[in-house]
């Protein structure tokens, strides 16, 4: 999948935000709608993981 030249990404290798084409897709998170959101990529992923973990725990109680 080609990078969206208008989107923002977070590079896991360099720990930087990239706009458009940059490092390999497997080394990046995104796309994100803006630079500020891309900068928060790791926090967003952590929050989503915690939310899914809680959902799994709740499901396991059924």
Automatic annotation (TrEMBL):
<protein>
    <recommendedName>
        <fullName>SPOR domain-containing protein</fullName>
    </recommendedName>
</protein>
């Amino acid at each position: 999948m080609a990078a969206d030249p208008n989107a923002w990404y977070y590079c896991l290798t360099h720990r930087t935000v990239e706009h458009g084409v940059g490092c390999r897709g497997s080394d990046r998170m995104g796309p994100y709608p803006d630079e500020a959101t891309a900068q928060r990529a790791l926090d967003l992923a952590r929050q989503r993981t915690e939310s899914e973990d809680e959902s799994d725990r709740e499901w396991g109680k059924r």
